[in-house]
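User: I'll paste a sequence; please echo it back and then give the predicted structure.

Assistant: Echoing your sequence first, then the prediction.
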Amino acid sequence: MAKWLDSMTNAGEPLIPENLKNLVWEREEGQCFKCGAAEDVAVHCIEPYGMPTEGNTKVVCTKCRMEL
């Protein structure tokens, strides 16, 4: 089993390393990539169950995340 699968969260999303979170946060300027909101946002994998890579992570607000 892949090492990252051992670290899955209850939401079924792999843990995203802090350095990757910081990189994505700066790239997206702390705003939701879909609606531009700056409140209630976090860095998440966009492709469900996908690997946490620079191309598969975005800053997204809670509302837009429900639509993914």
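Residues 1-10 have pLDDT under 50 and may be disordered. Strands lie at 41-45, 57-61.
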